Amino acid sequence: MRELVHIQGGQCGNQIGAKFWEVISDEHGVDPTGSYHGDSDLQLERINVYYNEATGGRYVPRAILMDLEPGTMDSVRAGPYGQLFRPDNFVFGQTGAGNNWAKGHYTEGAELIDSVLDVVRKEAESCDCLQGFQITHSLGGGTGSGMGTLLISKIREEYPDRIMCTYSVCPSPKVSDTVVEPYNATLSVHQLVENADEVMCLDNEALYDICFRTLKLTTPTYGDLNHLVCAAMS
Predict the structure, then answer these.
(1) How much is the pLDDT for 173?
(2) What pLDDT sits at residue 184?
């Protein structure tokens, strides 16, 4: 089968990733405990692309969750599909990157990257025919952009012939969290140009517009935006 390894990094990447697994589990008929409750054989036909089959017929996402602070991980674990993930695949630090690309790429992130790569190798080795990697992250923060691009370049070194696809949330001036977003994004884009095969640029402003105009939502939340992204991803 053509397996994919899914990686989610930083607060934004983990929140989109958590939503993505809710959507994809629903499509495959997998419940929050990992058991299959679908009604069509088609749902199981390509299930190996995203899931490993564990003992007792349970399906476990081939997902790696990384962040430089434990907060987002805790909320993913406490979410509706939190018990679906392998506990070993949560890799996090304690310090945070403070929206600083260099912290994610050169200091804090560099210290944690080997632990992440160990989990990546373990997941890749258990695949019959690894097709590639997909990563969800933002380009405006510190972890998703700095550590995310560091991980992409490391994976590129180790698996040069595998597809590297990213879902990158790009900063936009109207929907901005921090003042340093343009710097983080510029530094990340250079890395993505060098090391990624496909980059899906997700623009919060455009997503808001779709929620307003097409879905007729008066006050869209980040949850609504994430759901929209996941509909496109799955």
Answers:
(1) 82
(2) 95
Q: Are 155 and 4 in contact (CB under 8 A)?
A: no
Burial class (CB in 10 A: 0-12, 13-18, 19+), 234: middle
* pTM assigned to the model: 0.94
Give the class (CATH, top level) of 2-203.
alpha beta
Q: Which residues neighbour 77 within 8 Å (Cβ) at sequence distance 6 or greater?
A: 83, 85, 90
Interior angle at CA 82, CA 218 and CA 176, nearest 5: 40
Torsion of CA 86, 224, 210, 49, to 10 degrees: 20
d(CA 104, CA 142): 5
pLDDT digits (tens, 9 = 90+) for 198-233: 999 999 899 999 999 999 999 988 899 999 999 999
Query: Number of H helices and number of E strands within the chain?
Result: 9, 8
Q: Residue ranges of the alpha helices (H) in the chain? A: 10-28, 42-45, 71-78, 101-105, 108-125, 148-158, 181-195, 204-213, 222-233
